[in-house]
Design goal:
Elements lengths: L20 H8 L3 E5 L2 E4 L1 H20 L3 E2 L5 E3 H7 L11 E4 L5 E4 L4 H8 L11 E10 L14 E11 L2 H21 L6 E7 L6 E8 L5 E6 L4 E4 H5 L1 H11 L7 E15 L1 H6 L2 E3 L5 E3 L1 E7 L1 H12 L16 E6 L8 H15 L4 E4 L7 H11 L3 E6 H5 L2 E6 L5 E5 L9
Parallel strand pairs: 3-7, 9-12, 17-18, 17-19
Antiparallel strand pairs: 1-2, 4-6, 5-6, 7-8, 8-16, 9-10, 10-13, 11-12, 11-13, 13-16, 14-15, 19-20, 20-21
Helix pairs in contact: 1-9, 2-5, 2-9
The protein binds one RNA strand of 76 nucleotides through strand 13 and helix 11.
RNA sequence: CGGAGCGUGGUGUAACGGCUAACAUCCCUGUUUUGGGAACAGGUGACUCCGGGUUCGAAUCCCGGCGCUCCGACCA
């Protein structure tokens, strides 16, 4: 994409109504636009990152046999009354609205109820199981306090998967498999080293749950990391003496081995048991003819929060630093025109290189702005946007038939023969 | 939901109750410049969040809204 056609611009100054680093950088670099507190639009650059993250999630969910679907955001009150979660006293972060005829509707903050109810039309027999279904969808949560930029919004994107298994054993087998899929997602988006599977309390549905927590000072949670085993427990576990004892024993770790860290929850999986299948009478007929409740699990990950987390964890003083797999573009080609400007030899060579990259299937952002935008400004913008590989072509480099390559993450600079540029992307 | 702070051109800031609301940046014209956010000249752009009130006079003081940020509570 030619940068002259990109409608967003970078900003030199931090927005006055944001303090958090993720919002500051993402807004200044033109990835997101704030609409109101906790509600952000995704601009072309930000959407590219979001789509890449979603595609990685799709691949990893597909790899463990999950199928994608898309449920509705508008929710039927009756369905939620079935599980007892319509009441504002039970769930206090509902957005509710009404039809013209005063029928109440909700805007989905999660989708256990709807999907369980839907599955009644498709799950009848043991032969229909298991089913693993997920969606990537906008969720609405009426948070009393939106904060931390895109880390905690009122409208946000969420991948939520639900598993439907015939019994506890097969549920547990899939639950374990899902952990692997989640780990691969964090590795691929560049957060693997800092993300720990964290045992947490189960809340109302089960004895325990697992969170994926990325260590960062911008986090809201306190976790206790066992660095040797690469696992953690949530503070809430240690606060509960009986839970702490059994969970630490199960994990084979001792309290003294744990190090306290601030972290942001970037994923959460938990067994649902038959909490919803009982409520909705989602049963199946087993081979022996008896009726049994489906055993369920729920698996969430927030792509938009992941963007914020990457911005918090991987950025530096000059701006964003995108890992290869989620970067909006693989290459940032910068041309420094000669005195003939857009008609000059350097411009022609850079145009040709851009075409070559594009034809090779390499996504490149081409900073083709003319000499009114000087080198320093182009470099500063490039640092801020954070594309992994920068390729600079100028009169100087062209004279040697080279380009200059700078790696955003490390700052490493080297000269590469123009003909070898494609080799940078294998 | 408790507490604190804030709301002024697109952006970031300034302005004692008193001239035509100032500066920087961005943007537009032109000249010059060309490897880390250049220089000069000219120009566009604001009912100072909204509604009331006090006053000869309000961006400024008072009241009420709305909005934003932060701390806390909450967060299957």
């Amino acid at each position: 994409m030619r940068q002259t056609t990109l409608f967003t611009k970078t900003r030199k100054e931090a927005p006055k109504d944001e303090v958090s680093k993720n919002a500051d950088l993402l807004i200044r670099a033109g990835f997101i636009h704030k609409e109101m507190a906790g509600v952000y639009s995704y601009l072309p650059l930000g959407l590219r990152v979001l789509n890449k993250i979603c595609d990685i999630i799709r691949e990893e969910m597909g790899a463990i046999g999950a199928q994608e679907l898309h449920l509705t955001a508008l929710q039927d009150k009756k369905v939620w009354e079935t599980s007892g979660r319509w009441d504002d006293a039970v769930v206090d972060n509902w957005f509710k609205t009404k039809l013209k005829n005063d029928t109440e509707l909700g805007l989905g903050f999660t989708h256990e109820e709807q999907l369980t109810n839907l599955m009644k039309d498709y799950i009848r027999s043991v032969h229909d199981l298991p089913v693993y279904a997920y969606q990537i969808q906008t969720k609405f949560r009426n948070e009393t306090r939106a904060k931390s930029g895109i880390m905690r919004g009122r409208e946000f994107l969420m991948k939520d998967m639900y598993s439907f298994s015939k019994d506890v054993a097969s549920h547990e087998a899939f639950y374990e498999k899902s952990k692997g899929a989640y780990k691969r997602v964090y590795e691929r988006i560049g957060l693997g080293d800092k993300t720990f599977i964290t045992t947490a309390l189960g809340g109302s549905f089960s004895k325990f749950s697992h969170e994926f927590q990325t260590v960062t000072d911008a986090g809201e949670d306190l976790i206790y990391v066992h660095e040797g085993k690469g696992i953690a427990v949530n503070k809430e576990v240690l606060d509960d003496a009986t839970a702490a004892q059994s969970i630490l024993a199960e994990l084979g770790i001792a309290r003294e081995e744990l190090v306290e860290k601030k972290a942001i929850e970037v994923g959460n999986i938990f067994p649902l048991g038959t909490r919803f299948s009982d409520a909705f009478e989602l049963n199946y007929q087993d081979t022996d003819g008896t009726k049994k409740p489906v055993v369920m699990g729920s698996y969430g990950i927030g792509p938009s929060r992941l963007i914020g987390t990457i911005a918090e964890v991987l950025s530096d003083a000059n701006g964003l630093v995108w890992p290869k797999e989620v970067a909006p573009f693989q290459a940032h080609l910068i041309v420094l025109h000669d005195k003939d400007g857009k008609e000059g030899k350097v411009a022609k060579a850079a145009d040709a290189l851009y075409d070559k990259l594009t034809q090779a299937g390499i996504e490149a952002l081409y900073d083709d702005r003319d000499a009114k935008t000087r080198a320093g400004e182009k470099f500063a913008d490039s640092d801020l946007i954070g594309i992994p590989i920068r390729i600079i072509m100028s009169e100087k480099t062209l004279a040697e038939d080279m380009v200059e390559v700078k790696i955003r993450a490390t700052g490493e600079v080297r000269k590469v023969p123009s003909c070898d540029v494609l080799a940078l992307f294998v």
